Amino acid sequence: MIIRKIQIDNYLCYYDTNSFVLSEGLNIILGENGEGKTKFFEAVDWLFNGENEDLELLVSAKKLSETEIGESFRVRVSMTVEQYGDIKIITRSFVAKKEKENQCSTSSFMIEGIEENSLGERSQVDGTTLLDRVFPFQIRKYSMFKGEADLNIFESDNALVNLINLFSEAKHYDKYSEKGAFLREKAEKAVEDSAKLDRKNANLYKKLEGEISLLEKEKAKFEVHLNSTDDEIRKIEGNLQLAESHVKNADALETLNKRIKEIEEKISFLNGRIDENYTTSLFDENWILVNFEPYHKEFAEKVSEHSKKRRELQSEFDKEKGIKLGEKKAKADLLNNAVPLPTGVPSKAHMEEMLNDQICKVCNREAKKGSDAYEFMMERLKTYLESQVANETDDEEYEQLFKLDYTNRLENLSISHEDNLKNLRSIRTNIKELFEFNNDRKKEIEELNEQLEKEKSERERILGNSSVAEEKLIDVLKNYNAWQDDLKNRNREQLRYTSEYEKLEAQLKIKKEEKDKIDTDSANSFLIKTRNILRDIETIFLDTKEKKFDEFIEKLQSKSNHFFKKINIDAFTGTIVFTRRNKISRTIVEVELQEDGRVFYKPNQSLLTSMHISILFAISELATETKEENFPMIFDAPTSSFGENKTAQFLNLIFETENQKILLIKDFLNNDKTTKALSIKNEFENVRRDKAFWVKLERPFDPNNLKTINTQVITL
Amino acid sequence: MNNLFEKWKTKIPKYSEVHKDLFASLSQKFGAEGEKKINFGKHFSTNYELYTYAFFLGLYNDEYSPIPDNEKKTDFSHHIQHWGSKSSAIRKDFTNLQENMFIALIAKTDINLIDLEKGELDEDQAIKLILKTMESYTNGGLILIKEKLEENPNYFLQPTSFLNLILEENVA
């Protein structure tokens, strides 16, 4: 079946008559949010499944506002289809009559059918019947999908089974297996009745039946256990897998945090090594003396000049006074009349040192104890020491030229600071070295800071990717461990239940064989033979039905994966797996995404959508094979999680599939930020399709006034 | 034993009240060390540090500026001999600095040492002259600092500013 045309009249934003003349393959309808896309979908849905209620809500406000009170018009959605070369038209409509301003009544709700034969003769038929004939209800159910979430029609246990039953040959065996069971039961009863004729047998039989029924009950109990354990295991596995990505993150986070801490510690250590208290160092390290040397020189010269002058004056004074002249003269002679050094030079400490070492450190010659040189130094020290005591008495005895002596201390200060000069000279080097050291550390810190930034942004990335915040990651870890324990326990239970279950089955088998033996021994052999044949027949029907069912699942799986691989070019390469599970009294089919044989529990939306669409396409293809007919599929915004690029790829892929598709999407539209004008992007030219439309509100319109709303259908 | 150094150390040099603000803003009186100190714009832990600094700055730049007679003088009641904390574990003793200051003062002060030793010049008078030299160079240094601040109020926010002034010499 192919939809040739859809016509919408006065239905909500579709004012007057709007036609979508569709093509056989891929039809793309573009539209911005709120401009008529979804209303198209809903109009078709109303045509397929609409009911005769709240009809006034479907009336075009613009049409109503333009209609005179008392006048009426028809609201209509109509579909022209082609099936096996014949044209059929199905129309759902009602009449809206304007009663008051903004109000209308509705009447004449109807669904009409028109069939056109090959000769072009048209005849009126019942619309509902015609619709069900061209587009069976069960198939319609799997043809229209609104949004991504809607694609997941397989969440419910029955959906897939129903679908498979609809299309697979398995359903043909339903009636046979039912009949087979009925006949087998009859035969069993006949055998039983025959065997029970013997009283002794009857008691034994009763006992066995009681035992069998008890075992069956027990077995059923374990079946329930097994099923629920199975469910739990799957749930825990899902949780674990969800947690796993977080656990990985938590691990990575821990490593990162450790690294970040290390870098921060390094930085802090380096910061500690940087001494930038330069002002304090001016004092503590005496840096302030960096330029002091000239002043020291000036001081030393001043002191020595003074000292010399002082001695000269003293010498003059002494000469004039004639006191101790001989002695002084002798000394003067010894020095070739040069001015003698002050008695305190070399200093007392230096003299003592030289005497102790027996070396004259002035002329750098040995001065062994007892030698002249040694005696000279000893004499000089004595003179100095005497000069320190003698003064007071001298003062009284003699008139003094110098009443006070500051020179000595000043000279000592000068001498002691001579040694410091080399320290002063090294200050500049020290400062330079410290600056270099600090700069090196700063460079290291800068590098570390860069590294730190990198690590931190990595941490951001991890925390950003993870839907749980940092502290919650720790909780996830905790739960993760608990779930792992749970899983272990459940697996153990499952093992235990399975073995119990198998034991019970074995016991049941024994009991049933015992019962059969009584039958064989005592019942009518013809009845037994008949029963055995009927048992076999039932088994054959059941097995065949299951085989057909499995075959269909297998086909569905391989077709689904074929589409899935195509949709997910260069992306996740998991596999869609259909699993048949036999629950008590019914069969369910579950569909899962697996990666390397492991269930992939939490795929993202885009992946889910790909999977669902793949399955739908597969179903559609299989339907075509079994029914030898195509059915259209209508999707409203199925790929909102895709992104434009992937949508384009996806559309190009869909283009290659066989049956008719109508896709409503909001991609490929450009909204000019300044003029607000909408346009179709050039990229759309590269999208392969058979037909494209653009549904767009007529400008200008008032978003608050429905009367101004009219969707134009532009065929691209 | 007569010792000018010992005597000088017992004195408290003065500064012109004109520079009171400098002491308030640059030297630290109320706790806070390290980074916090710098954040407050206080580079000197004590008033005498700033005084010492200003002295050397004035000296190196030959800024001999006696405090004019009409300017009121003040001090911070701290004898030179107590400058430099000898009890602190992190700071070092100032003895060497004191000696060097004294050396510079003797070099720069016009004292007739012969007269002094002869007893013709009073020791107190000599000390007075020395202190005047000290106060004059310090005053010169403070003026230089003030000029720098007037040029750029943020000049001393750099940790190296004070060091640089000393290294540069002749900043004037």
Keywords:
heterodimer, A: alpha+beta, 17 helices, 19 strands, B: 172 residues, two-stranded antiparallel sheet, 52% helix, Glycoside hydrolase family 15 (chain B)
Summarize the structure in words:
The complex is a heterodimer of chains A (716) and B (172). Chain A has 716 residues and is of the alpha+beta class. In chain A, 58% of the residues lie in helices and 17% in strands. Chain A is built from 17 helices and 19 strands. In chain A, helix 9 packs antiparallel against helix 13 (407-465), helix 11 (348-357) packs antiparallel against helix 12 (372-397) and helix 15 (525-567) crosses helix 16 (605-627). Chain A is elongated, with a radius of gyration of 54 Å. In chain A, 27% of the residues are buried. The model of chain B is unreliable at 30-40 (pLDDT under 50). Chain B has helices spanning 4-9, 20-26, 34-39, 47-60, 95-108, 113-118, 123-151, 161-168, and strands at residues 15-16, 73-74. By secondary structure, chain B is an all-alpha fold. At the A-B interface, helix 8, helix 9 and helix 13 of A face helix 4, helix 5, helix 6 and helix 8 of B. Chain B: This is Glycoside hydrolase family 15. Chain A: Pfam families: AAA_23. Chain A: InterPro entries: P-loop_NTPase (IPR027417), Rad50/SbcC_AAA (IPR038729).
Short description:
The complex is a heterodimer of chains A (716) and B (172). Chain A is an alpha+beta fold.
Report the end-to-end length of chain A measured between terminal Cα atoms.
24 Å
Strand order, biggest sheet of chain A?
2-1-4-5-6-7
Secondary structure tally, helices of chain A: 17
Low-pLDDT stretches of chain A: 392-396
Strand order of the largest sheet of chain B: 1-2
Q: pLDDT below 50 for ≥5 consecutive residues: which ranges of chain B?
A: 30-40
Q: What is Rg of chain A?
A: 54 Å
The H/E string of chain B reads: HEHHHEHHHH
Task: Kindly state the percentage of residues in helix of chain A.
Answer: 55-70%
How many beta-strand segments of chain B? 2
Span of the ends, CA to CA of chain B: 42 Å
Radius of gyration based on Cα positions of chain B? 17 Å
Tertiary shape of chain B: globular
Number of strand segments of chain A: 19
Bin the strand percentage of chain A: 15-25%
Protein name (chain B): Glycoside hydrolase family 15
Organism (chain B): Zhouia spongiae
InterPro entries (chain A): P-loop_NTPase, Rad50/SbcC_AAA
Protein name (chain A): AAA family ATPase
